[in-house]
């Protein structure tokens, strides 16, 4: 039979964390007192600290912040943003609207960054095993297509012929590489993916925001599994802004289209229920 001391030790070990240490009057994040972090650490630096365990350099933080800023919003036609606005008109609070929106950021809408990081990681692994860059990327692309289909995450955009965000982000990666902040391997991999897709398809399919942020997150050493979480942190800003704007504009039970625009009905014509008029 366990002693009272053993039971207390079991209870204390139930949740074990290296992230935060709290006792009455004291809070420390990864060992840093919260009162020293406040006013001295930016929000991107805090994200890095919480997820990675220590503080980034100023240049690392600059790159992370750029990626987070770039992906905050893409308009009310984006499903997650539209959902946040529709939810508000149903009478829910801001937190409910945000949760409803975040819950659709899955594999298809919101998951491309993580998927692209996984593709890059596969190519990087092959390079680490001795394969030349072009062969490694080609093999990684073939493996991805065999498992997931022909749509390559991070390249091409349904709305932008050239994504205005990706060029700036890649230029910042190159600046960081020149300063020795990042190695530049994932930037090379991304550009090689673009070159291979152009050769295979006969037209350029440029890197989009997901491909560019995947380069940054990978260059900074984030695991692919964190890609979607980082995107959600970024897009939550846009979700909050749109939910708040809709709450100020008002409106009740707004659906995805104005009520004067009908949807398409493709079922049978009006017909009688069998036996309805039989005595």
UniProtKB/TrEMBL annotation:
It comes from the Bacteria. The keyword Transferase applies. Signal peptide: none annotated. GO terms for molecular function: citrate synthase activity. It is an enzyme of class 2 (transferase). Its EC number is 2.3.3.16. GO terms for biological process: carbohydrate metabolic process; tricarboxylic acid cycle. Pathway: Carbohydrate metabolism; tricarboxylic acid cycle; isocitrate from oxaloacetate: step 1/2. GO terms for cellular component: cytosol. Pfam families: Citrate_synt (PF00285). Keywords: Transferase. InterPro entries: Citrate_synth-like_lrg_a-sub (IPR016142), Citrate_synth-like_sm_a-sub (IPR016143), Citrate_synthase (IPR002020), Citrate_synthase_sf (IPR036969). Belongs to the citrate synthase family. This is citrate synthase (unknown stereospecificity). It comes from Aromatoleum tolulyticum.
């Amino acid at each position: 039979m366990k002693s009272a001391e053993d039971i207390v030790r079991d209870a204390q070990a139930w949740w074990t964390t290296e992230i935060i240490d709290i006792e009455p009057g004291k809070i420390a994040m990864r060992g840093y007192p919260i009162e020293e972090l406040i006013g001295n650490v930016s929000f991107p630096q805090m994200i890095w600290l919480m997820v990675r365990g220590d503080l980034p350099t100023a240049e690392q933080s600059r790159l992370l912040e750029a990626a987070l800023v770039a992906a905050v919003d893409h308009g009310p036609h984006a499903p997650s943003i539209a959902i946040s606005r529709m939810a508000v008109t149903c009478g829910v609070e801001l937190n409910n609207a945000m949760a409803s929106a975040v819950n659709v950021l899955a594999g298809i809408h919101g998951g491309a960054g993580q998927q692209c990081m996984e593709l890059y990681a596969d190519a990087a692994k092959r390079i680490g095993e001795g394969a030349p860059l072009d062969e490694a990327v080609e093999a990684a692309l073939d493996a991805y297509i065999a498992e997931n289909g022909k749509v390559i995450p991070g390249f091409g955009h349904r709305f932008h012929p050239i994504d205005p965000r990706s060029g700036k982000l890649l230029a910042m990666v190159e600046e960081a590489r020149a300063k020795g902040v990042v190695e530049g391997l994932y930037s090379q991999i991304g550009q090689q993916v673009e070159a291979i897709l152009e050769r295979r398809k006969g037209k350029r399919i440029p890197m989009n925001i997901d491909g560019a942020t995947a380069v940054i997150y990978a260059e900074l050493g984030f695991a692919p599994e964190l890609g979607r979480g980082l995107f959600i942190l970024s897009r939550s800003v846009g979700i909050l802004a749109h939910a708040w704007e809709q709450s100020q504009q008002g409106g009740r039970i707004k659906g995805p289209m104005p009520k004067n625009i009908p949807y398409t009905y493709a079922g049978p014509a009006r017909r009688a229920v069998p036996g309805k008029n039989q005595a």
